[in-house]
Amino acid sequence: ATSTARVAALPTAELHLHIEGTLEPEMVFELAARNNVGLPFQSVEDLREAYQFTSLQSFLDLYYECMAVLQTRDDFRTLGERYLERAYEQGVRHAEIFFDAQAHTARGLAAEDVLDGLLDALHTGARKGISGGLILSFLRDRPVPEALETLESLAHRAGDLLAVGLDSAEVGYPPELFTPVFARAKELGLRVVAHAGEEGPAAYVWEALDLLGAERIDHGIRSIEDPELIERLRRERIPLTLCPFSNVKLAVISSLAEHPILDLLDQGIMVTVNSDDPAYFGGYLADNMAGLTAAFPSLEESALERLARNSVDASFAGSERKAELH
Ligand code: HPA
Ligand code: ZN
What we know:
Blueprint: H1 4-7, E1 12-18, H2 25-35, H3 44-49, H4 56-66, H5 73-89, E2 92-99, H6 101-105, H7 111-127, E3 131-139, H8 144-153, E4 163-167, H9 179-187, E5 191-196, H10 202-210, E6 216-219, H11 227-235, E7 240-242, H12 244-249, H13 261-266, E8 271-273, H14 278-281, H15 285-295, H16 301-313, H17 319-325
Parallel strand pairs: 1-2, 2-3, 3-4, 4-5, 5-6, 6-7, 7-8
Helix pairs in contact: 5-7, 8-9
GO cellular component, one term: cytosol
EC number: 3.5.4.2
Binding site for substrate: 277
C-alpha cells in the first residue's frame, strides 16, 4: 500500500467535492456556538457516532441537518478556506467545488452570501497555489421551478460560476426533469456536469449526457451494467468522477475491494478519484487514493500517476494551468 503522504506528492485536481460535505464535526459545534444554533447532538463524539449510513438518503438527512450551522458569508469563507488548506496538504492543486445553493436559500440565506463567501475562499486558495471554481448544483429532489429560480437569481453572477451540476436523492428524480434548467445554464455560458448512476440506473447516465449535455458524470459507477454505455464513455472520453470512500460508506458497494475503478481503468474509461463529502466519508483525496492501494495490492504506481493525470485532464482548467499541473 502507498501512504497518503506519498500519494500527496502527486499534483491532482479534485472534481467531485461538495463544500458542505467538508463540514467536520468540530466545525459544526464551533459554528453552532457562534451562531446560536441548537443541535440534537451532545458532543463532537456523539455526532461522529451518527456517521453510519445505510444509503444515500440516510447520509443526506444528516448532511442537510448539520449545514444549518452555516449562516453567514464569513462561515462559507471559513469552510472553503479550511477545505482548500486540507486539500493542498493532500496534493490537490485545482478544485472544482459543488455548492448546494437551494439547501441554504430554503433556510432563508441569500444565495449571493454563499457565493461570495466561497469566492473569498477561492481567492485565498489562489494566493496559496490552488486554483479552482464553483459548480452550482441543483437539488434533484426539490421542484424543477425552484432550480430554475435559483439559476435566474444568480444569472447576473454567471461569470463567477464555472458550471452547473445535479445532486441529492437520485432514484425517482431522472435527469430528464431538469432539461430546461440545464439548457438555460448553457445559454449563460456555464459548463455542465451531473451526478448519475450512483444509486440510480445506467439509463440516468444516458439522460445526463443526451438531455442535459453533461461533460462529466459524477459517480457513474452503475455504467458498468451497460456495455453500450461503457463503449460510449470510452469513445467520447467522458470522465467519471469516482468517489471510492463515499461508495462504501453509502453502501453502493460492499467494500473498497469491490470497487470497479480498476476494471473501468482497464477498459480505457477516463476515471478520476475524488472525495465527495470527506468530513462524512473518512478522508480527503489522497486518503481515497491510499485506500485504493491498500484494497488493491496489484495497483501500481503508474496507475496512481494515470489517475492523477486524468484528474487534471478531466478538469475545466485552462490549457496553461493543465500544463503546469502535469
Ligand atoms: N450524491 C448525491 N448528492 C450528494 C452527494 C452524493 O454523493 N453528496 C452530497 N450531495
Ligand atoms: Zn457527490
